Amino acid sequence: MRAPRFPFMPFLVASAAIVGTALGSQYLGGLAPCELCLLERWPYYLAIVVAAFGFSARGYAAPRRVAMWLLVLLFAASTCFAAYHVAVEQHWIAGPTACTGGIGQASSPDQLLKMLEARQPVQCDVVQWSFHGISLAGLNLIASILLLGYGLVMARRGDRS
After folding, report:
1. Total Cβ atoms within 10 A of residue 130
2. Measured between alpha carbons, how far is residue 74 from residues 13, 121, 131, 133, 161 in Å?
3. 3-state secondary structure at position 87
4. Which helix (H) or strand (E) holds 131?
5. How much of the chain exceeds pLDDT 70, in percent?
6. Domain 9-160 belongs to what topology?
7. Which pTM value belongs to this model?
8. How far is CA 83 from the centre of its chain?
9. Where are the domains of the chain?
10. Do residues 156 and 62 lie in contact, with contact meaning Cβ atoms separated by under 8 Å?
11. 121 sits in which H/E element
């Protein structure tokens, strides 16, 4: 089976679409991101830059190979971030204290006020929106796994050629 002529294009298009959708839902749809949602965007921002570099380095095998393996690492990290967020949303594990959990442990009004001031306005362990029961973090997990798999296949093909 032949490798795609432009193996970086799916990363570029998918990453731009995912970031565009996230920003659109935030600024046009009013869906405020939590702390983990913002963290999950970083691999996509970096992937756009790396994929554009890899795409523009046609004819140069070594930089393209490095770019492809960087994309694999970025989407491995993205998969971990998304899996962590899904686990926090499902209450399988505890999330960051600033954006999860209750405030019932306060022993005084002053301590309660401090806890409320430290708390993020959008909770990481609350699903704000879902599609057929899959949260945005879950959709990100699926996208990250698919892009990671594609990257691994393309990186292995590049190493053999």
Report:
1. 13
2. 15, 28, 25, 26, 23
3. helix
4. strand 130-131
5. 84
6. Bromodomain-like (1.20.1550)
7. 0.82
8. 9
9. 9-160
10. no
11. none
